[in-house]
Design a protein that fits this description.
Radius of gyration: 14 Å
Structural class: alpha+beta
Distance between the termini: 39 Å
Order of helices and strands: HEEEHEE
Shape: globular
């Protein structure tokens, strides 16, 4: 498999890790879109959100728990942050290993007029 995120999990490609446990790893994005831009991924390769199986649902909870911990450690929990998952090509997904972007450190614009 030629998945860049799997290679990061395996230590074949270096990353600036901010969090790791048995199930997930989080690291700074190399092309940040905000002052704080961290990617949170499961260690298990799951291509997209559509590929999450019932036995993988605990990993989504692990990702959200990691997001809370990281937001606190990086000082954006109180002021607020955005947690985003892009799914599929029309959703903007580029790397086909499910991942969440934690963005913060500045006032982020609304995604639509209702936000």
């Amino acid at each position: 498999m030629d998945c860049i995120f799997c290679k990061i999990v395996e230590g074949q490609i270096p990353s600036k890790k901010v969090y790791e446990n048995e199930h997930v790893v989080a690291f700074h994005d190399i092309e940040p879109a905000a002052p704080v831009h961290v990617l949170i991924i499961p260690k298990k390769h799951i291509p997209t959100a559509n590929d999450v199986a019932p036995e993988d649902l605990h990993l989504i909870g692990e990702i959200h728990q990691a997001a809370q911990i990281i937001a606190n450690e990086l000082g954006v929990a109180e002021s607020g942050f955005r947690l985003v998952n892009n799914c599929g090509s029309n959703g903007g997904q580029v790397v086909y290993h499910i991942h969440y972007h934690l963005l913060g450190g500045e006032k982020l614009g609304p995604l639509n007029k209702r936000d």
